[in-house]
Amino acid sequence: MKIIRSPRAMTAWSEQLRREGVKIGLVPTMGALHEGHRALIRAARLRCDALVASIFVNPKQFGPQEDLAKYPRTISQDRALCKKEGVDICFEPTVEAMYPSGFQTMVTLPAIARRWEGEVRPHHFSGVATVVTKLFGIVRPQLALFGQKDFQQSVLVRQLVKDLNLGVEIVVHPTVREADGLAMSSRNIYLSSDDRIRAVTLYRGLQAGAEAIRRGVSDGASIQKTMIQTIRGEPALTIDYLSVCGPDTLEPLSAVTSRVVLLGAVRIESVRLIDNLLAAPPRRSS
Ligand code: PAF
Question: How far is the CA of 283 from the centre of ligand 1 (A)?
Answer without folding.
Answer: 36
